[in-house]
Amino acid sequence: MILFCVAGVQMATCATISETAQVIARYLRKAADRGAQVLLTPEMILVGYRGDYDRRVRDQAIRDILGPACRRYQISLLLGTGTHRGKGKPFNQLLMLNSRGDQAWAYSKVLPTPSDLKMFRKGALTNLKLRRIGGISCGTTICNDFWATPGYTDLPDPNTPKRLAGQGARVIFQAIASGSDLSLVDFHTRRLEDSAARFGLWVVTANAIPGPGRPVNAPSGIVGPDGNWLTRLPAKGERMYVETIRVT
Question: Taking the complete model, does pTM exceed 0.90, yes or no?
C-alpha cells in the first residue's frame, strides 16, 4: 500500500490568464502546506474554454508563475490548458508540471464533443497511457473522455476508464468543465461511481464553475474503488480538497 496525498480545486477562469495563474499558484501553496503531492485543476482553466487564446500570454504564465510556484512549494500540477503544436487549432490538454517546475508531459482530450471540435484538435488514443505520479500508476482523462455523454458525443466511445484500468492504472485524474445542464448531474455522478467500483480505481476530479453562483453538474472530489466518495465538494463556489488515499 502507498499513501498518496492529492488535491483538487473547483474554480472558475479569471478575467485574464495571468490572474488565473496567480489563483492557481495560491492553491498550489495551500495544497503543499497540507502535504499534497499533486494538484488537479479543471479542464482548460488557465486560458478559458476557447481555442483563440493568446499563446504568448499562456506560455508566459506557465513559465513565470506556475512553474516557479511548483518549484517553490515542491508540488506537481495537472493543469487544464490549451496547447498548440504548429499551425491550426490547439489541443485541449492536461499539462503536467512536476515539482521542479518542468513541463513533464501532456495528455490531449481523446473524445471531444462536436462543439469542442470547432475549437480543438482531437487527441490520439495513444494518449491513453499510464504515467507515474507519486510512485503510482495513474491515468488522465478530460471531461467527456470519461463518460461519453449521450447527445454530446458523435465519436465512438473508447471507454477510457476500462482501457486505463487494463493497463494497470490505480488512479485516474479527471479534469472537467461540464457546463450547467443540471439534468446531467445524476448521469455524470453515476458514471464516476460505477467506473471506480467496476475497475477498482480511485477517481480524482476537479470541475470548472460554470458561472457566478451556478452549480457544477459533475462533482469535484475523490471516488474510491468501492464506488463511494471519500470527499465531495459542494456544487457551488470555489473550493479545494486535500486528501490522502491508500493505493494498493
Answer: yes
